Amino acid sequence: MKALVLAGGSGTRLRPITHTSAKQLVPVANKPVLFYGLEAIAEAGVREVGIVVGETAAEIKEVVGDGSAFGLEVTYIHQEAPKGLAHAVLISREYLGDDDFVMYLGDNFIIGGITELVTRFRSDRPAAQIMLTKVSDPSAFGIAELDVEGRVVGLEEKPENPKSDLALVGVYLFSPAVHEAVTRLKPSWRNELEITDAIQWLLDHGHRVESSLIDGYWKDTGNVTDMLEVNRLVLESVEPSVLGTVDETSELIGRVVIEPGVEVTGSRIIGPVIVGAGSQVRDSYIGPYTAVAGDCQVIDSEIEYSIVLRGASIRGVRRIEASLIGREVEVTPAPHVPKAHRLILGDHSKVQISQ
Q: Which domain holds residue 23?
């Protein structure tokens, strides 16, 4: 079995961060989202991985390399434009050959990994196996319709009138039968080749499609709200560790990770929090569910429930919450502008002015 990891796309919902960085490399608890997927693939016993890349290919290649750091053998497959998930399968035909494969969306996050899913697929070998989860806004996802016995009978991408609340999670397993399906597709109303249409083609032509309802945690980290929620979830499991310097006037409460080279002085940090290597925290408060990357400065400031990317500087600011702060950003107070009142008053007037 091989894996196909989709790491193209422009990440429009995470702009302006993704104007200068691949959305799959935005960190969660100081580790790129993409890395969690690659680790899950390796844990499932899959070694050969094709990564579909687009305009951010150079950046992804730089951090992932040949995949050996994850115990993987990585091949890069260039996609000129994001034309749909099925299009990614179509252009990867030569790499995939006649092998079964797991397709993993590189900006998705799944607690618990995919080992059980892969094991089940290898045992049962349907034409396709999908993961489903209940969502509150089904019109924003690919949706599956099940019959009374729980079998998949229909799929639709972002329907206006959803037939269920079961959304497809960003992990799919396929036999080589899917290759004929993707060659038969026409672009959807979104002008993309939809993987839901490919799976529907398999159903319509008598192929077996299995599904399972995910009981773990899944998020598509395509927007800031979901990124912060995933960051919160991962930080919940960190073990406290202090490898940097914390002076006697500082206070660490709960699960706090202080990486090597960090200097904490005159500050209060309430976990779960991680502060990346080489960062400086002085006369500040860092609250729960905050990840500060390496080489940052948090000075005379307050921040919580936020993600701060490498090299950012926050000085003299109160208060920052629920924020995603990009690399090398500088956050400082606005200049103080004296307030003045301009008055034109007639004779015998009485005026009260709040100070």
A: 2-233
